[in-house]
């Protein structure tokens, strides 16, 4: 078997320090040589972001340029139509048949997993890692997800990585969010404390007049 491959997908709308910190914790907790950040193209579960997939990907590339082991993967940016996680994982598995995929999602995404395409098959495609925001309560998970978590739960360590298992990242997510970042950008406020690519985002003007509260 080849070394496990970390997968971290999201809209990154836009990328912020919380994303980068989380990717680093994910990498270090499981001693992953590579973590691929995969900005989604057209997300099926939310309105499309106002900023193009390629622009969001460019900011991710800039944000992780000096981060060891963090790599941009643009496959979903180039994909036409909705981007489903199961399609991406299956594609990666075909490309790396001897590699265990270790894929990361947030606690909110875990709670909504039954709404994802082929969600139970998803759990067999690698080792799922869950990162929960401060205050997230795992007791509120819907029963189908809670049952799977209990059945598949494994310690968050390199030695426990295995197909079909689920681990909970011990470190919580930073409280910074893309929502707060977009709101501050819309008001023209300084965001250099929230994102490593503040200058690029501000100079683009793309969020300056946004009224999107989501």
What features would you describe in this structure?
The protein has 214 residues and is an alpha/beta fold. It has a single domain (2-204), classed as 3-Layer(aba) Sandwich (Rossmann fold), CATH 3.40.50.620. The chain is built from nine helices and six strands. The protein has helices at 17-29, 53-63, 75-78, 85-95, 107-111, 119-122, 143-152, 178-186, 198-204, and strands at 2-10, 35-39, 70-72, 99-106, 127-131, 166-168. The protein has a six-stranded parallel sheet with strand order 3-2-1-4-5-6, sandwiched between helices. Helix 2 (53-63) links the parallel strand 2 (35-39) and strand 3 (70-72). The chain starts with a strand and ends in a 10-residue tail after the last helix.
Distance between the termini: 42 Å
Total helix count?
9
Q: Major sheet: size, sense and barrel closure?
A: 6 strands, parallel
Which blocks of ≥5 consecutive residues have pLDDT under 50? 210-214
The total count of strands amounts to 6
Reading off the top of the CATH hierarchy, the class is best stated as: Alpha Beta
* Average of per-residue pLDDT values: 92
CA-based shape: globular
Strand order of the largest sheet: 3-2-1-4-5-6
GO biological process, one term: NAD+ biosynthetic process
Catalytic activity: nicotinate beta-D-ribonucleotide + ATP + H(+) = deamido-NAD(+) + diphosphate
Enzyme class: transferase
EC number: 2.7.7.18
